[in-house]
Amino acid sequence: MNDNKIKRFTIDTVKGVTLGVSVAIPGLSAGTIAVSERCYDTIIDSMSGFRKKPKENFFILLPYLIGLLIGAICAFIGIKKGYEVAPFTLTGLFGGLVIGSLPIAIKELRKADNTKEKITFSLSFIISLIVSAGIGIITALCKISLEANMDFHIYWMYPIILIAGFLAAFACVVPGISGSMTLMIFGLYQPILSLFIGDKSIFKNHDNNRLITAILFMLVLIIGAIFGLIVSSKLMKKLLKDYRVSTFYAILGLIIGSTISMFINADIYPKYLDNSIKNWDYIVGGVLLVVGISLSLGLVYLDKILNKKKEDDDRLETASTTIVDNANDDNSDNTNNI
């Protein structure tokens, strides 16, 4: 491996670490981070074309996967510790990150000038809003606690886990939507952390029943995630090409609906009822809500700057090419005249 390849591998691995952190943090979109780091198209193209050129695309994706794993593990450990001390503080921060990503969708909606399609746009927005907000509210009101059932073989959990894995992977590909936020809405985020981190983890408790449940849990989740990645990489490419505005109306609905679900879901709703959240937690959570919005808006602004720079570079390159071509044509004409 030459120096350029080593440098490229290292840079892509570091980008993968930031993607891993964004995957672990509810509200921070891996798709948005990938766009701002200018690796979104590379990853999507490699995923969608994996079957045609598996070896080539595997080595393109490998550094991102290595970095993603490192970043996600480090972030999950920190988040688990934080939730035990200040659940609303972290929820406020994550909610702010979601709200701050709204300009990504709004920017695309300005292109919606087709009056005939406005009904379609509205339906896309309303349906996605109801679905994303409804899932969190239903899990909260029905008191669906998957974590409480982790030690038992309750088979109705597995279809939910499969769907959640599919949607979480799908969400990771969509700019502005968070995969881990999807798991939080389904009430799966804390159960996953508890399986591997903390006093109830399978590494500290030698409970065969819990170990078997954990293996089945993660296997079903991974199967759902694999299908989600396969479908989303192809579907998003198609939707953004042929139905871009409608797709971003749906994304806007998902962002707003998921913000509601982050504050009303099976993980945090019971804490409101039993008054286990301290007053200082609510205050700090409110402050970090603003901080999260600012951070997310900063990423959107960074992406705007990078895109503008790319457009300027492309225009400069095009202008330079045109000048060189014209010069060559002039030299050719002079030669012919001689």
Structural notes for this entry:
The chain has about 350 residues and is mainly α. Helix content is about 80%, strand content about 0%.
In a few lines, what is going on in this structure?
The chain has 14 helices and no strands. The chain has helices at about 5-25, 30-35, 40-50, 55-85, 85-100, 100-110, 120-140, 155-175, 180-185, 190-195, 210-240, 245-265, 270-275, 280-335.
The counted number of beta strands is: 0
Distance between the termini: 51 Å
Provide the low-confidence segments as ranges. none
Shape: globular
Helical content stands at over 70%
Order of helices and strands: HHHHHHHHHHHHHH
β-strand percent reads under 5%
The helix tally amounts to 14
Radius of gyration: 23 Å
Q: Return the average pLDDT rounded to an integer.
A: 75
The major pleated sheet works out as:
none
Which structural class do you get from the secondary structure elements?
A: mainly alpha
Task: Give structural attributes.
338 residues; mainly alpha; 14 helices; 79% helix; 0% strand
